[in-house]
Amino acid sequence: MPLNEKELLERDAKRNIDEELLQAVRDLKAGKVGRVTKVEVSPLAASRLRIGLSQSEFAKLLGVSLRTLQEWEQGRRAPSGAAKSLITIAIKKPDVLKELLAA
């Protein structure tokens, strides 16, 4: 059964929040984490990061809107046509796009 407001205040008055936070940091550093969340990055986003471009810069290079690029990276939409070809190059040969940007 949930605690009422008075019970919550009484419980919290007995807590040492500073020590709890410090112990949580110690546990984290020691690898005593209860839950680890892995975030999988799409191949497109990974390639963009390897090239060193922001989403805005990469979208401009591909000739698409920022929102379109975000939807591709998040897997909600799939690119087609010329954008698909450029993305394939970005994934397989990111240095080629870096070279194009430098020119």
TrEMBL record:
Domain HTH cro/C1-type: start-end pairs: 44-97
SMART domains the UniProt entry points to: HTH_XRE (SM00530)
Record-linked InterPro entries: Cro/C1-type_HTH, HTH-type_reg/antitoxin, Lambda_DNA-bd_dom_sf
A Pfam family hit: HTH_3
Coiled coil: none
Gene3D superfamilies: lambda repressor-like DNA-binding domains (1.10.260.40)
Keywords assigned by UniProt, alphabetized: DNA-binding, Transcription, Transcription regulation
UniProt keyword Transcription regulation, yes or no: yes
Membrane-spanning residues: none
Protein name per the record: Helix-turn-helix domain-containing protein
Species in which this protein is naturally found: Pelotalea chapellei
